[in-house]
Amino acid sequence: MKQRNEQLPPGIRGFLIRMGQIDRRWIYLAVAVAIAAPMLARLRFPEVPGRMAHATFDAIESIPPGSRVLIAYDFDPASAAELEPMANAVLHHCASKGHRIALMALWPLGKQLADDAVRDILLEYHPDKVEGVDYVQLGFKTGNEGVIKLMTTSIGEAYAADASGKPITKIPLLEGVRTIGDFQLIASISAGTPGAQQWVQYGDSAMPDAFKFVAGTTGVQSSQLLPYYPKQMEGMLIAIKGAAEYEMLVTEKYPVTRSADRLALGRERMGPQFVAHLLLIGLIVLGNVSMLAARGWKGAAR
Amino acid sequence: MSSEGMQQSGGAPKSDTRLWIALLIFGAVGIFAGKVWRPGPLAEAYVEVVTETRVLAEAVAPPAAQPALAAPSGSMGANAPLPGASTSEDSSPTRVWVESNDPRFQSGELRRVEGVAPEVWDERSRVDPKKAKEQIATLEGDAERLSEPTDPTGLTQEEFEAREAARITALKAVESTRIVASPRDSIGIWVAALLTLGIFSFLVRDNPFYKVVESILIGVSAAYWMLVAFWSTLVPDLFAKLAPDLVRATMLPGLVESEHPGKDFLLALIPLALGVMLLWRLAPRGAWIAVWPLAVVIGTFAGMRLTASIEADFMAQIAATMKPLVAFTPGSLEGVVDGSVSGAVDGVSYATSAQGFDLGGTLAGVLGVVGVITVLVYFFFSLEHKGLVGKTARVGVWFLMITFGAAFGFTVMGRITLLVGRFDFLFNDWLGLSP
After folding, report:
1. ipTM of this model?
2. A22-51 b/e with 16+ CB inside 10 Å = b?
3. Which end of chain B is more exposed for a tag (fewer CB within 10 A), N or C?
4. Which of A25, A39, A170 shows the shortest C-beta gap to B420?
C-alpha cells in the first residue's frame, strides 16, 4: 500500500484515487455509524403517504365493518424487521374498523409471529376482542401454494381445526365460510415463496372479484410483485417505506393511547434508512469520481 | 476481502489492527455513553407469570364428536397453541388438562376425571421491560393500598363486609399476577447478542468466532427444518393416515378421527411408494427407480403452475398493459355525454373529450407501452439487432437497466432495514438503551 501510495498523483486527484481503493471494511464501519447514530438519536422524518399506501388503506377501509378478513403471515423472523411493522398496522387497522380477522401462515414461524401480534397488538389495543368471534388463529399449514389452491375449493380441507384444535365448523367467525371467496379481503404479508405472488396466481386468479387482495412485501420481492398492482392487487406496501406511510394513515384515523411505539416501528426505522441512503449515494458518487480521476493513471489497471 | 492486509502473512495485518481498534473504541464509547445516558442493566427481561389451577377432564360426548379436545395436525410442531390455550393432552386421547373454571364444564361438554389431583400451572409470557417496570410499580401500589383494612367509620355492617370482600378479591387478583425478572430470557438475549456479533465479525475478517457461529446457524437450521418437515408433513399427512391409532397413542394424542379412514389409508400409500422410490437412489442398484417419482413431482408441479401462470402472469398482464395512451382524470368527465366516454382503466377514465387532461396518467401509459414493446424487441433474437430493430432494442436495454436499478434500490432498502432490526435488538433488548 505504501509503495502504491508513492505512485499516486499529488493533490486532490491522488486523494480521490486513494478513496477509490479504500478498504471496504471502513465502509462497513461507516454504514454501522450511519445507522446507529440516528437510531440512538431517535431521528425521525415526516412521512407523506403515497398512492400504494392510500390504496391499501382504502381497500381495508372500503369494506363494511364486520367483514371477514384473512391475514396471511407469510414471513419469518429473518424478515420481521421489514414486515412486522406493516403486519402490525394492518392488524390494528382491521380490528379498529371492526372486521373479523382470520390469521394463517404459509411459513412455519409465521404462526408464532401472528401469535405475538395477537398478544401485542390485537389484545393490547382491542382487549374486547374475543377469540373465535372477532379473530381466529388458523396457524401454519404445510403445502405452500397447494394450501392456497385447496382453500379456493374448501378451507376445511386445508384447515380442519384452528391452531388451538377447535374444528372450524365450531368457530362462529368461520360460520358459512367454505372457500377463501367467502372472505371480503385477503392480506398477505409476504417475504418470498410462498407469499403474495402465489396468492395472486392461485387465489386471486382462481376467484377474480371474489375478494379484495392487498399485500405487504419486502423490498427485494417488490419488483417481482409490482406488475400485479393495481389490477390483481388492490394495494401494496413496499418494504419499510410502505409500512411507515401506512402506519401514518392508520394511526391518524385510529390513534392509540398506550404502547404507541408498536405502531411507529416503520417510521422509527426510516430515520436510519434516510442517513444510510445518503451515505450510500455519497459512496456511489465518490466511487465514480474516483474512477474518473484514476483514468490515465498508470496504477489504475491494478 | 481485497485489502493488502489479507495478502500479508504472519501476525495481524496493520489494516486489521486499525479496524479492530476502531470497532472496539466505537463499541465501548457507544455502550458507555448509552449506559450513562440511559442507565439500567443489560439484557433485561421480564415475564408475566399467571398461575392457573388445571384439572384433568374428559369429554362427555363420544370421541368423534369431541371437537374441543382435538389438537390440530402438527400441533407439536409449528402450531403450538397460544399461551393460555388449554390443549395440553394427557396420554389418553379423550382426556385433557383444562382450567378448573373452563366453561365447557358448565355446558356439559366436559367432566372432571375423578381421583386425579388438580395441578398448578404457570403460564409465562414476555413483557416489554419498560411496561413491566410500570406494571410492577402499579401492582406494588395496588397491593399496598389493598392490604390496608377497610375503614369501618360511617359504614353499616353490610357495607363494610361488602367492601372488605371486594378488597380481598382485588388483593388476591393483584397477588396472583406476578411480573418478575427472567434470568432464563436474559441468558437467551445474551446468547442471541453474542451470535449476532459473531456473524458481524466476519465483516472485519474471517475468524474462529464467526466459524463457530456459522456452524451453529447451519446446524440449528438443518435440525429445525427437519423437525418441521417431520411434524408438519410426515406425521399428519402420512403416518396419521397409515396408522392413525398408533400415531394417536404415540405422537398426536388429539388427532382428529377421519371420516374416511380406509380411503385415507389407500391414498397415503401413493406418496409412501413414491417416497420409497425416491430414496432408492441411495441403494447400490436401481438408481433409475428414483427418476419416476421425480417425474411425478415435476409433472404435477408444472401442470399446477402452468395454468396459474397463464392466467395470472400472462393473460392478466397483457390486459393490464393495455392502457390508454391519452388519460383523463375521472372528475373531468362530468357533463360529458353521448358516447364521448370510451371506458375506464385502473380507475382512470379516458374519453374522446379533451377535458381534464391527465399528464401523469398519459406519460405512465405511454412509458408502459413503449417499455413493453422495446424490451420485447430486445429479447427477440430471430432478427439481427441492427437498424430500427437495434435502436429499439437499445431503448429496451435502458428500460431494463432502470428496472434493475430500481430493484437494486429496493434491495438496499430491505437490507438496511434488516440491519436496523438487528441494531434495534442490540441497542434495546441487549443494551437496554431504549428510552
Report:
1. 0.91
2. ebebeeebbbbebbbebbbeeeeeebebee
3. C
4. A39
